[in-house]
Write a structure and sequence with these properties.
Blueprint (H helix, E strand, L loop, with lengths): L10 H12 L4 E2 L12 H8 L4 E3 L3 E7 L6 E2 L2 E2 L2 H4 L1 E9 L2 E10 L4 H10 L3 E6 L10 E9 L1 H12 L24 H8 L1 E2 L1 E3 L2 E6 L6 E2 L2 E2 L8 E9 L2 E10 L1 H13 L3 E6 L5 E2 L3 E10 H12 L41 H5 L5 E4 L2 E3 L4 E4 L1 E4 L2 E2 L4 E3 L6
Helix pairs in contact: 2-5, 4-5, 6-8, 7-8
Length: 393
């Protein structure tokens, strides 16, 4: 739908714009895509010893859950899809393929796997914990490779065989996900502003950042680890354990940390996953086991401090030439020209050809609120919440 004019005196039009555009802005867990272009997937699967799924962005992703491990944390037995899921993602780029991944390893597996991968040309970009107090302790080795996809898969296979990571597809991690989980998923979706999916008894989210993430100049889609991952595992009596990671710029790290801590969510690790990412990103891991609704609200508070698509709408294809951009960046002073209420600011940008807008409906105190983005040449710039008064003026 294209919007060529927006009149502040038409509340119905303004509400419609917010609602229609919201439908396309919600973050979702990447789903398998038949349209993904990766003609080597069969050969990659054979060389790796494990098949995967084609994902959005031309990514072929292979899940390698550590179903052999039985890990507990604060009395909760962690499901493989909750915090023990190794994965590898292949994406063609020009004449070569990039592979990125995260390998879940025990302490004694780290050295042999690392040595073999390094010998075979696979780069190690990070090694660290994600959780605290887990028994037995697990560590996470992030890998990167460029080159022929089948050779990369063979090298990764040889490294993985030095661990006890299950390979083969019998009862593997690419089976159809479970469609139910003992949680109020509608409440979680509504609170986070994103749509999750149930898989293996876990409710999972993959929420993109607003901007395109690159590594060494190559795009890194959500299926390759650039999105904010949030997992809920039910623990009974309307409670859930949560874990995952926020993907943050340096300026976002401490605001998100404070939001998590203020809501009783433990920050368990802060580190990089990539070496040459643009923008430079930091990954903040978290853990809690508490009332599900309370945790969802705490996570939402943290999302609102980051540049994620759950926090801000990101569709830049609604033509608003001659329209109104209600707000771009706070802080603005209260008053007739404040960006906080959209007065004056909207008139200032009205009719500016080539500018676009997006909106995301958010139910605030007594009126709807729209997070509005202004873009030029099809590229969004970040904005924050702005209360609109179209029904008042």
């Amino acid at each position: 739908m294209t919007f060529t004019t927006m009149n502040r005196s038409s509340p119905a039009v303004m509400r419609l714009a917010c609602t229609v555009i919201l439908a396309g802005t919600l973050g979702t867990v990447p789903q398998a895509s038949k349209a993904a272009d990766n003609t080597d997937s069969g050969e990659v699967a054979a060389a790796l010893g494990k098949s995967g799924s084609n994902m959005p962005g031309g990514v072929y992703r292979v899940g390698l859950p550590r179903t052999d491990l039985h890990v507990t944390l604060d009395g909760v037995e962690l499901k493989p899809g909750f915090a023990l899921g190794s994965w590898l993602a292949f994406r063609p780029e020009g004449n070569e393929t990039m592979v990125m991944g995260d390998l879940v390893l025990t302490e004694t597996e780290i050295a042999p796997v690392m040595t073999k991968l390094a010998e075979d040309g696979i780069n190690i970009t990070a090694l660290h914990n994600h959780l605290l107090r887990a028994q037995p302790a697990t560590f996470y080795m992030h890998v990167l490779g460029h080159g022929d996809p089948v050779k990369l898969a063979a090298a990764l296979h040889d490294g993985l065989t030095l661990s006890k990571t299950p390979l083969g597809d019998a009862g593997g991690g690419n089976a159809a996900p479970s469609q139910t989980v003992d949680l109020d998923t509608a409440m979680i979706d509504s609170t986070l502003g994103a749509k999750g999916r149930a898989a293996g008894g876990v409710y999972q989210f993959g929420i993109p950042r607003a901007e395109t993430v690159k590594d060494d100049g190559m795009d890194v889609p959500v299926a390759m680890g650039s999105g904010e991952a949030i997992n809920f595992q039910p623990t009974g009596n309307s409670r859930a354990a949560i874990t995952g990671d926020f993907v943050l710029t340096a300026a976002e790290v401490n605001p998100v940390l404070r939001a998590l801590r203020a809501n009783g969510i433990e920050v368990t690790a802060l580190h990089n996953h990539m070496l040459d990412d643009q923008p430079r990103l930091f990954f903040m891991h978290f853990w809690a086991n508490d009332d599900t609704q309370r945790l969802a609200k705490g996570l939402r508070a943290a999302l609102d401090k980051s540049t994620s698509r759950a926090a801000r709408g990101m569709i830049c294809d609604a033509d608003a030439a001659g329209g109104i951009a209600w707000s771009r960046r706070p802080p603005f002073r209260h008053g007739p020209h404040s960006g906080l209420d959209g007065r004056g600011f909207g008139r200032r940008f009205k009719g500016r050809a080539g500018w676009r807008f997006t909106s995301q409906l958010h139910h605030g105190a007594n009126r709807p609120r729209c997070a509005v983005h202004v873009a030029s040449a099809g590229r969004c710039v970040r904005s924050r919440w702005a209360r609109h008064h179209s029904d008042q003026q």
